[in-house]
Design brief:
single chain; 307 residues; alpha+beta; Pseudouridine synthase; Archaeosine Trna-guanine Transglycosylase, Chain: A, domain 4; ten-stranded mixed β-sheet; four-stranded mixed β-sheet; 7 helices; 20% helix; EC 5.4.99.25; isomerase; PsdUridine_synth_N; tRNA pseudouridine(55) synthase activity; PUA-like_sf
Length: 307
């Protein structure tokens, strides 16, 4: 938390922490470490990231944990490496190899043609080793227990699927460096699997780095080493709300009203937005319905506003 936040606000330490996760850690591992480093139990994440992956993991700290369910984190961006020439049980490098096929003869034009079919609004079958629940159990747990899991295709949007580089590797493999921008719920491992399968040579993911979740990017991110040296959030609760939501300016009188749970006159803004007082503090997140702009979360209730 920045020193600009007044202790009397009752929100010292609250905010959004963007962690640049290292490979090998689960999202829950990161939450546990951040709880120790920040000396608070009130840390939660806004969506997991595979252990093999690195990059943006969005955490809420203290009162900002209440923001997490309201954040519009519907778009994500990744940098990844896809290996053509082998399919695996997990659609990534951590699984056992199922098939191996020489991919060296696959042309760039053939790759581009299949990538085009995997771009836009598509139906995607999620990776079987995923957190999706099947009969109340996580799919990855069932797979690791030796069961066969078949998941239904889901609609997703892949707005960008760009091949940046190709490397022909000894053994008949082809590595592709790619950038992907997509909707939440899209599996990059599934893109790798489907690209290789359609080309007839198999494919899997060998590297994955998440570069953006909603408005939060690697520019906001801190490593756990950085956090150990200087504990604190990436964005305090005011910066987080104003980064993640549209906002309207309100008067001191309106701030007092909304902090006590009353509603304001609507101004025609759609969706959830932040109400900002003259001092730059976020008082509440509002949503308009009919003739009212009512709070969906009071960031600074009257009991915390001792200014």
């Amino acid at each position: 938390m920045s020193a600009r936040e007044k202790p009397s606000s009752g929100l010292v330490g609250a905010g959004i922490l963007i962690v640049d996760k290292e490979a090998g850690l689960t999202s829950h591992d990161v939450v546990a470490r951040c709880r120790k480093l920040l000396n608070t139990r009130k840390v939660g994440h806004a969506g997991t990231l595979d252990p093999m992956a690195t990059g943006v993991l969005v955490l809420g700290v203290e009162r900002a944990t209440k923001l997490l369910g309201l954040l519009a984190l519907t778009t994500k961006a990744y940098s990844a490496t896809i290996r053509l020439g082998a399919s695996t049980t997990t659609d990534d490098a951590e699984g056992e190899v199922l098939t191996s096929t020489d991919a060296s003869a696959v042309t760039d034009e053939e790759i581009a043609a299949v990538v085009a079919t995997l771009t836009g609004d598509i139906e995607q079958i999620p990776a079987s080793v995923s957190a999706i629940k099947v009969d109340g159990q996580r799919a990855h747990a069932l797979v690791r227990a030796g069961e066969t899991v078949e998941l239904a295709a889901r609609p997703v949007t892949v707005s960008t699927f760009e091949i940046l580089a190709r490397r022909d590797i000894e053994g008949g493999f082809v590595d592709l460096d790619v950038d992907v921008e997509c909707s939440s719920g899209t599996y990059i491992r599934s893109l790798a699997r489907d690209l290789g399968r359609t080309l007839g040579v198999g494919g899997h993911l060998t590297a994955l780095r998440r570069t953006r979740v909603g408005p939060f990017t690697l520019e906001h991110a801190r490593t756990l080493e950085d956090l150990a040296e200087a504990p604190g959030v990436s964005l305090d609760i005011d910066q987080a709300a104003q980064t993640a939501f549209p906002h309207r300016q309100i008067t001191v009188a309106e701030a007092e009203a909304i902090s006590q749970g009353r509603w304001l006159e609507p101004i025609g803004l759609k969706g959830v937005y932040a109400a900002i007082d003259p001092s730059g503090h976020t008082i509440a997140l509002l949503q308009e319905k009919g003739k009212r702009a009512s709070s969906v979360m009071v960031v600074r209730p009257a009991t915390l506003r001792q200014d």
